[in-house]
Structures are given as structure tokens and as C-alpha cells.
Write a structure and sequence with these properties.
Number of domains: 1
Strand content: 15-25%
Order of helices and strands: HEEEH
Radius of gyration: 14 Å
Mean pLDDT: 85
Distance between the termini: 25 Å
Shape: globular
Structural class: alpha+beta
Length: 77
């Protein structure tokens, strides 16, 4: 893999678990998100290369309409 470039992947771990596992292991930076009802988005940072970061899960405060758009795109894929 070309290390001079940055690549961003967003993947549903239910679809290709073996492939996703390989990507997770190779990633310098690794974040997970999840949604719960009623329209709440959470982010957890697992790994960040050479920068300090806060551990734990945090709610992402986005307007409900933005969360609905994100959900619609996720379901479409």
C-alpha cells in the first residue's frame, strides 16, 4: 500500500468481516461509529497514529436531519 497517501474507508463490518478485519489491522487510524434510537450517533476512536486522543465513546451532536441523511445513505449502500 502506498504510504504517501491517505485513504479513508467506511465499511459495514457485517458485510465482509474478514476483509474488514484486515483493513482494521493495517490502519494507522481506526474509528468506529454506531447509531441508536432515537437518532443518536456515537463515535469511538480505537487508534490514532502519533497524536494524543481521548479514549471512550462520545455522542456526536448533529441535527436530526443530518443523522437521517447519514442513515439513508448507509442503508442505500
Amino acid at each position: 500500500m502506498d504510504k504517501s497517501k491517505t485513504y479513508l474507508f467506511t465499511v459495514n463490518t457485517d458485510i465482509f468481516p474478514e476483509w474488514v478485519s484486515e483493513l482494521e489491522e493495517a490502519s494507522d487510524n481506526l474509528m468506529f461509529s454506531r447509531m441508536e434510537r432515537p437518532m443518536r450517533l456515537f463515535l469511538r476512536i480505537e487508534r490514532m497514529k502519533e497524536v494524543p486522543f481521548k479514549r471512550g465513546e462520545f455522542e456526536v451532536s448533529l441535527p436530526e436531519e443530518v443523522l437521517r441523511m447519514i442513515k439513508k445513505e448507509a442503508e442505500r449502500g
